[in-house]
Amino acid sequence: MRTMVVIKFVSAAGLLAVAFGAASACSTQGTEVQGSETNWLDVCASNSDCKVGQCVCGACTTACEQTTSCNAVLDTCATRGTAAFGALCGANTTTAGACLKGCAGAAACPTGTECIGTGCVPVRVSSNDTDAATGSAGPALQSTTYDAFTEVIPDPPAPDGGTGALSGLCLPRALKVNAQGETSCSIVVVGSASCDCSAPGLSTPDSTVMSAIIDRLRVLGSCDVPGTPACSDYCGCEVAPYAGAAFDDCLTSTALDGVGWCYVDPAVGWGLPALTAECPPTEKRLLRMKLRSSGSDARTFISCTTETSQPAPADAGAPGAIGDPCVPLDESKPAFSGFDETEVNVETSAPDCGGNVCLTANFRGRVSCPYGQPSDPATGGAQSGLTPEQECFLPGTTATAANAVTVPVNPQLVTRRAADVVTCSCRCDGPDLNATYCTCPSGFVCQNLVPSGLSAAGAAVAGSYCIKDGTQVTDPTRIAASACDEGPPANCGDPHPDGK
């Protein structure tokens, strides 16, 4: 199994204040009730599959633009940007909304549906699950990629006197979202002030998580050094994600009710594009949150994990030794905008490294495109009309339109070149007492890069990895920001260094 972990740290500048206008709904006439409740919301592939209504986003229902367009059985209109619409229609841009049976919290939904946000959505069988009709298994996954990242940010200000600040964290990579809009993220606010986790939306974090957070605060110099509190003085409260109507509000409205958070990714149907309008072109995803301030020395820890699958790559040739260059498999995706210098990415079973680790340590951009490519302000995608030397292409391919990277890409940083910080590596230390660890060769140091306890990666990938001596990073938010410039003269070499 291939595993990848991303650990990321950002500064206060990573917080984005969100302000946007609510979209207005158009008025349409009501729809006459037809058929029984059991006929509505059947899973369908075409209109002929439906005994009532039409096949809208794979369900027997009717299209709508507002709730008055629906009927007495399907009594709510799930419009674009809501949790129910995202679960039913994904990134569909031609359907304004679909009528569903309304639900609230634990309200019962018809058999074969589940309550997501404020609507009952049909439960579908994934192509990778067991086939419900035949009992046979779906296509086997050729490999699994595991992503995790941890953000450490200063607590956002609370100008309203402590009830929290509306803010968001733009993300350079997509998270996996289930049918309910859930991601495997946790948010913990810590500080040296006393912690009362009994308020709505808060809970006491697991002791293992708090132990990992205290260790990270110590590494960052936030405690146990002169002028800072003792690490033992810190406590924290975990922030729960929004649910029900509050979840839908988080995806569509500025009026958030109480402390909480949600994940917004308009590209796959979760939330309105206006929410990510102020995010950089390479980071059009958002963890939107309203947090409770916990003192001037507070920090917010955000840990997310996601699991994806992809086909096993073709044979990459002879395995690389520790320190040899490698190209992360993320770069085989045309819609991958590149890494961020605050990330540490660990990809296990990497083909370039003979099944060992391809380590990306505080690197920005794509290995295969040092100078990046600019965004088109009109579309948000890659700018058109560039020469092949100005464009990014999939690694190992020819410079043709079919192989082009379709999204904007940040240029690499002169001080963090791929040859130095995207290399084959191995785990040299960690919390797993039963694991076998490597010894770093001469010219390399064993650096703790993946803290244990902060993500579901657990003992399997947590710990230290061999990196080139001299490439260690103490504070990834203060890396020199000088970017590669294609010039002339080009200061970072070949614009396509992977052999195209």
Helix content range of the residues, please? under 10%
Question: What amount of the residues lies in strands?
Answer: 15-25%
Estimated structural class? mainly beta
Kindly report the spatial arrangement of strands forming the biggest sheet: 9-16-11-13-12
Terminal CA distance = 29 Å
Mean of residue pLDDT? 77
Instruction: Count helical runs.
Output: 4
Secondary structure: number of strands? 22
- Which runs of at least 5 residues are low in confidence (pLDDT < 50)? 10-35, 125-146, 157-163
Order of helices and strands: EEEEEHEEEEEEEHEHEEEEEHEEEE
Shape: globular
Main beta sheet: strand number and arrangement? 5 strands, antiparallel
**C-alpha-based Rg, rounded:** 24 Å
What's the SSE blueprint?
Elements: E1 4-8, E2 15-16, E3 54-56, E4 59-61, E5 76-79, H1 83-89, E6 97-100, E7 113-116, E8 119-122, E9 144-154, E10 165-170, E11 184-191, E12 202-203, H2 207-219, E13 235-239, H3 244-252, E14 260-264, E15 286-291, E16 299-309, E17 343-347, E18 357-361, H4 418-421, E19 422-425, E20 427-429, E21 444-450, E22 463-468
Antiparallel strand pairs: 1-17, 2-10, 3-4, 5-6, 7-8, 9-16, 10-15, 11-13, 11-16, 12-13, 14-15, 17-18, 18-19, 20-22, 21-22
